[in-house]
Amino acid sequence: MDAGGAYGAGKAGAGFDPITYIKKPQVILRIISWVFAVIVFGCIASQGKQMSPLGGEYCVYNGQSSACGFGIAIGVFAFLACTIFLVIDALFDNLSNVTHRKYAVIGDLAFSAVWCFMWFVCFCFLTDAWRNTKPYEKPPRQSEVKAAIAFSFFSVIPWAGLTVLAFMRYRQGAQSAFSPSYEPEPSSATNPYSSFPGDTAQPGDAYQQPPFGEKSGIPDSQYQAPSY
């Protein structure tokens, strides 16, 4: 994960590099989640509902239309969310406003955590409904129906990873917000105080004449005391 700027982003204004973008861990996990979501709602939409001999459609998951609707809804919302967050990830480094970055990371963290839980609920819901389905109600082709259940469980893993990565970026941004924005200048250990500008004394001189302690230019022998 990049650590060049606030909330794990690089410096604002940097050019977009598709190779670096694809290699980001959150982008890889989001693409995997995007594919899993397509598989789940695609399988349920194609084979989740069958024609009843008595007329009309019924959900193969124990006849519970809510199970089919719930699985499709979770998959569609996950698909749309992954698409939106992939765009945000592409533009994230160019967000110069730290507050906007903070909101993007918080939104990613909240949605990833919620959808990780929702995928687990979807897996449990579909598994229980399929387990209670009577054998004569099950369609001849069951691979798509079982694939929807399996990929509902598989989707929990990348969404959990996205939650962890978003939390790490949020914690990094929170720590940088309270870190000092300046560094103290290094001080000299040998001579912390600068010498007087006119001081040219050698290091070995232990005593220096005071500036006003010099003798007068007139010799003492030529001085005469005034007479009164």
Commentary on this structure:
This protein has 228 residues and is mainly α. The protein contains 6 helices and 2 strands, in the order ααββαααα. It has a two-stranded antiparallel ribbon with strand order 1-2. Strand 1 (49-51) and strand 2 (57-59) form a beta hairpin.
Strand order, largest beta sheet: 1-2
How far from one another are the termini? 96 Å
The count of strands amounts to 2
Anisotropy-based shape: elongated
Compressed to H and E, one letter per element, the order equals HHEEHHHH
Low-confidence stretches: none
Our Rg estimate from Cα atoms comes to: 37 Å
Task: Briefly note the structural class of the backbone.
Answer: mainly alpha
- Helical stretch count? 6
What would the average pLDDT be, to the nearest integer?
Answer: 79
Outline the biggest β-sheet: 2 strands, antiparallel
Which descriptors apply to this entry?
two-stranded antiparallel sheet; single chain; 6 helices; 228 residues
Summarize the helices and strands and which ones pair or pack.
Blueprint: H1 18-22, H2 25-47, E1 49-51, E2 57-59, H3 65-91, H4 98-131, H5 143-154, H6 156-177
Antiparallel strand pairs: 1-2
Helix pairs in contact: 2-3, 2-5, 2-6, 3-4, 4-5, 4-6
In short:
The chain is mainly α.
